[in-house]
Amino acid sequence: MPRLILIFLCLVATAVAEISWRDLPALPDGHGFAGAYAGVSGGSLVVAGGANFPNGPPWEGGRKTWHDRVFVLDKPDGDWRLAGQLTGPRGYGVSLTIPEGVLCIGGSDAERHHSECFLLKWEAGTLKSRPYPPMPLPLAEMTGALLGRTVHVVGGIRKPGATAAEKIHLMLDLDAPNRGWRRETFPGEARILAVAAVQQEAFFVMSGASLAAGADGSSIRAYLRDAWRYHPASGWESITEMPRPAVAAPSPAPAYGASHLLVIGGDDGSRVGLQPPSAHPGFPRSILAYDTLTRTWAEHGELPVQWHAPVTTPTVRWQGGVVIPSGEIRPATRTPKVLAMTPAPVRSAFGWLNWAVVAVYLAGMIGVGVWFMKREQSGSTDTYFRGGQRVPWWVAGLSIFATMLSSLTFMGIPARAYQTDVSWYIGQLPILLVVPMVAFFYLPFFRRLNLTSAYEYLEKRFNLSCRLFAACSFILFHIGRIAIVLYLPALALAVVSDIPVSTAILTIGVLCIIYTVIGGIEAVVWTDAIQALVLLGGAALCFILAVGQVDGGLGGMLEIARQDAKGFGNLDWRSLDWSSNATGSVLVLLVAFFFNSFVPYTSGQDVVQRYVTTKDIGAARKSLWTTMWMSIFGSMLFFGLGVAVYAFYKSHPGLLDPAMTKTDSILPYFIMHELPVGVSGLLIAAIFAASQSTISSSLNSIAASWSKDFDMRIIRPGRDDATYLSAAKWVVTAVGCLGTATALWMAKSDLQSAFAAFNTMIGLTAGSLGGLFALGVFTRRANGPGALIGAITGFSVVVSLEVTKAPVAGLLYAFIGCAVCFATGWLASWLFPAAPATGLSRRG
User: Which letter, b or e, does each residue of 611-639 get, where b requires 16 or more Cβ atoms within 10 Å of its Cβ?
Assistant: First the structure.
């Protein structure tokens, strides 16, 4: 039965990634080369040296000839030119593109092998060469790649005709080349002509051939299928064996998409010894894809029939694609052709049925807003911002849960479990401490003061400056948050479907503005509640469908999770390391996630506003208990979903698109390509729901803060309520349009990383907000001037950590900001007269 379901899923959403191939101008030498050096310098493609048989194959009396010519191609539609010569004929070494030019390592000529390394640099129409530190031994037919700023070389032979390969791993730090090469032992079998690669911050060595002496003294090759991974922090480990050997395949194997490697062709040994040699049909054209996350191999198409698969040739990244210059296409036969490969990610058609499902859902959200608009006749700011305090506790609880769970979280938690493990689930446990603290220490003040804006408390407890600092911080953060929550989910959907980024942004943004404006907080919390149920239902449905396609069902999924360490085994229960690499430390996770929840639950207007929408403090506490358990079990579902999707693609690696550029898109990809039409529309609606719940909450809470903290308090005090209500609706509209326009600008400008940095900087203020409220609630001595000094200091410290790239885990920024604000604010308060008792602290 599972197989039949799988076939059905494949029929409704087939995902076959394609690679675009084309010819670049052929090399001027009509024979072509094997073992040439190649790379990019000065923006131009450089090909140097290599060997061929210009006078015919050896079985017809021809002899191999090594070359020293250097050719340069300045643009893909240009002409090759002879740029100069090497210091001598050379080939069969390793060549890598580095920022300084093309680094050529070792190699051979007709007489011997070499240890020399040199840099080729093409600059202003002139070829320059300079030496680099030589290897500790001569090598040819080895493999290598560049990981970060370290060159890695593995294997090879020392001299022509050698009957044993080298079991060696060499490393050269390009930032300190004068230190020379570091030498280690390669853990696998000694080999020549292996395939190297770099992906996911690791160096890979795959296939190759081992050597042994034959009876006549000649070398005999054994074709290898094993594969190895090297990470600087953990060293070497054996990984999944290849389906077939791929000796001398173009190397380094191109890193493809977010997590794949492509091994293009290669000699599998099946055609060795064919007689006559001229009958050799060429090397296999099939392409193998290795996923470095699931550690699985899958066939990924093949070279088009008009091209032979070249071996003993490098690959070069150039002009947005991968270039394979020349190479050997059958024994003693080269090709002058230069092939260019360009990734072509799969995008599934969304289809009318999916759009219909999304449209019905979104229309329902608008309907909720219209219903509350018609229901409410008073048209007051109290109703618009607090819902007349008639929201049921369970609705408020679901609303808080949905507000805290953005679409980035809905996609990000499964993506993290897919990429790593579920260890970060431990970060959800501090909510069991945060919620009781809020319910019994903070909630009484918020309810007693009958607040609309959370920051009214800060003025009553401290002064107006603290209130305005907090309100400004909140508003700026949420304006940025609206844009990022609109843009990144839209981008993730566009990666895997034909939904344009701009369409997704406008759809979510405009509809959020409409129902937030017309329905107020009641529409927001009720739609949040509906969206929370859609989110959980969608995640549960995805989990069931994914697990159903894993061999062995739930038991099979759990076994894969155990074998691939997807649980809590990577947590460090003893580490006190607070550095940026300490995200596996239990202490760091517990402290960081405690404060990442503590701050918004105690000082975020979007959350605090929900506390005053219920009829009394008892109902507000019930809403918090609802949120707490929803967070615990909902997060468990989302992490489990990530493991289920991992197990699915581990079981069916051929269904994964190697060209997918972002593994954060794995959940939308699974939804679009593995679920039936209609169901996928419902789950894409769930992603829209996650965005809408966050954005609508931000819009209404920004309007509430603006109205209460600025408009009523400073700008236009004493006006009638209708004036403030009208202004609040215009604020919702203006901020919504600003966020939508910013997201559209980001989509057109491709400024994701820049805006992410901006959003991070704005978000750094959150820690100080938590510290301000904690000062007010838990201390009696803290006063207005001291609290303001603490807030500014906390903000400044965290910003300095970010600007200076201090080795501190970013997860700890909220803790640091909150702790510095609290400690500095309390100490600074002793410099000023004690504040009069207000009854607004636990000891007041």
Answer: bbbbeebebbbbbbebbbebbeebbebbb
Backbone angle region of 795, left / alpha / beta, with phi > 0 → left and psi within -120 to 50 → alpha: alpha
Instruction: Write out the two tokens for 563.
Output: 């074998």
Q: Which of left, alpha, beta for 310 (phi over 0: left; psi -120 to 50: alpha)?
A: beta
Contacts of 237 (CB under 8 A, 6+ apart): 228, 229, 230, 231
How many C-beta neighbours within 10 Å does residue 319 have? 15
Burial of 152 per CB tally in 10 Å (0-12, 13-18, 19+): buried
Query: Can you tell me the distance from the alpha carbon of 649 to that of 296, in angstroms, rounded to the nearest whole number?
Result: 9
Q: Are 253 and 263 in contact (CB under 8 A)?
A: yes
Rounded to whole angstroms, what are the CA distances from 519 to 591, 729, 831?
38, 10, 48
Q: Give the span between the Cα atoms of 400 and 625, in whole angstroms.
A: 11
Using alpha carbons, list the distances in angstroms from residue 141 to 144, 158, 161, 436, 490: 10, 9, 12, 66, 47
Which residues does 639 contact at the CB level (< 8 Å), separation at least 6? 413, 414, 416, 417, 422, 424, 425
DSSP 81: E
How far apart are alpha carbons 268 and 254 in whole angstroms?
A: 19
CB atoms within 10 A of CB 14: 11
Phi, psi of 157 (to 5 degrees): -130, 155
H/E stretch holding 469: helix 464-496
Q: Which long-range contacts (CB under 8 A, 24 or more apart) does 54-57 make?
A: 57/277, 57/278, 57/331, 57/332, 57/333
Q: Bridge partners of 344?
A: 18
User: Vertex 493, ends 684 and 411: CA angle to 5°?
Assistant: 70
211: helix, strand or coil: strand
Residues 90-112: tens digit of each pLDDT = 999 999 999 999 999 999 999 99
Whole-number CA gyration radius for the chain: 32
Q: Identify which of 383, 373, 390, 400 has the alpha carbon closest to the alpha carbon of residue 610.
A: 400
Q: 607-616 pLDDT, tens per residue?
A: 887 887 888 8
Average pLDDT of 790-811? 83
Could you tell me how far CA 6 lies from the centroid of its own chain?
Answer: 28
User: Using an 8 Å Cβ cutoff, are 326 and 91 in contact?
Assistant: no
Q: Which of 632, 633, 631, 611 is nearest to 622 (CA)?
A: 611
| Distance from the first to the final alpha carbon of the chain | 67
> Amino acid letter at 584?
G
The maximal CA–CA distance of the chain, rounded, in angstroms, is 105
Question: What's phi and psi for 737, nearest 5 deg?
Answer: -65, -40
| Rounded Cα distance, 95 and 478, in Å | 49
577 confidence band (pLDDT: 50, 70, 90): low
| Structure token pair of residue 296 | 């699985």
Is 777 in contact with 445 (CB distance < 8 Å)? yes
Edge-to-edge strands of the sheet including 255-256?
255-256, 260-264, 286-291, 296-302
pTM of the model: 0.85
d(CA 251, CA 266): 10
Lookup: tokens for 668: 């939308």
Which residues make Cβ contacts (< 8 Å) with residue 562, sequence separation at least 6?
none
C-alpha–C-alpha distance, residues 17 and 343, integer Å: 9
Q: Which pLDDT tens digit goes with each residue over 703-739?
A: 888 888 888 888 888 788 788 888 888 988 999 899 8
Q: What DSSP character marks residue 135?
A: P
Identify residue 352 by its one-letter amino acid code.
W
- Spell 81-108 as b/e; 16+ CB within 10 A means b: eebbebeebbbbbbbbbbeebbbbbbbb
Distance CA 471, CA 466 (A): 9
Nearest to 482 by CA among 704, 693, 663, 728: 693
Q: How many other CB atoms are found less than 10 A from the CB of residue 260? A: 27
CA angle, corner 767, sides to 764 and 771, nearest 5? 150
